[in-house]
Write a structure and sequence with these properties.
The longest helix has about 60 residues, at about 55-115. This protein is mostly helical. The chain starts with 9 loop residues before the first helix and ends with a helix. About 85% of the residues lie in helices and about 0% in strands.
Length: about 210
């Protein structure tokens, strides 16, 4: 049921106006065709009267022919204006569609901006960067502290292990034997060391070279 209080649809109004303009154009075309037929009849009648020598009749029909041709020119002018109005109506419809599309796009962008909240996103990114930097600094400080603690005790233990390994390789035990070993005589240090160890200088050098490697 038609509602008199409802607002007219702009698209429907445009289509109705376009239909009316096309009807007006068709009516003007039909009128011009009728004027063309009348023009040919008048021209033929004028020629007939001229052959008969009827000057008064020729003048009267010539005036009618002039008025008819003016009417044809007015019809052409009206058709041109109707076509211009029709083109303008279509252009306005296209502009309305474009404006509606821009309105929808603007509303979509507004909704996205409201959902995204760029200020909050920027704040979150800054907070993440700040906390990440703090975490890296804290981790670096902890690693440095642990390296200092472990390096101090570990280096001493590693040094003791290397000394024990070297002494074991050359046949000397730290516990007991070094305390009970006889003191070497003056001038015979090399000989006493070889007798106690049971290894020659070349063998000792070879063992130390292996350790260095």
């Amino acid at each position: 049921m038609f509602n008199f209080w409802s607002k007219p649809d702009p698209k429907e109004e445009q289509r109705q106006a376009d239909r009316q303009l096309r009807k007006v154009g068709r009516d003007l075309e039909r009128d011009r065709r009728e004027l063309d037929r009348e023009e040919k009849k008048l021209e033929a009648e004028i020629k007939k009267l001229a052959k008969e020598g009827n000057n008064e009749g020729c003048k009267l029909l010539a005036k009618q022919l002039v008025q008819l041709r003016k009417q044809k020119n007015r019809s052409y002018s009206a058709s041109s204006k109707v076509r211009g109005i029709s083109a303008q109506n279509k252009a306005m419809g296209a502009n309305v569609k474009l404006a509606n599309a821009m309105g929808v796009a603007g509303k979509t962008m507004s909704d996205m901006n409201r959902i995204m909240k760029p200020e909050q996103i920027a704040a979150n990114v800054n907070a993440f960067t700040r906390e990440s930097t703090k975490m890296e600094m804290t981790d670096e400080m902890i690693n440095e502290s642990l390296d200092d603690i472990l390096a101090e005790s570990g280096d001493e233990e590693e040094s003791d292990n290397i000394i024990s390994q070297v002494l074991d390789e050359i046949g000397i035990e730290i516990s007991g034997k070094m305390a009970g070993a006889p003191l070497p005589e003056k001038g015979k240090i090399g000989e006493t060391s070889k007798a106690n160890s049971g290894l020659t200088d070349e063998e000792i050098e070879a063992q130390l070279a292996k350790l260095r490697a």
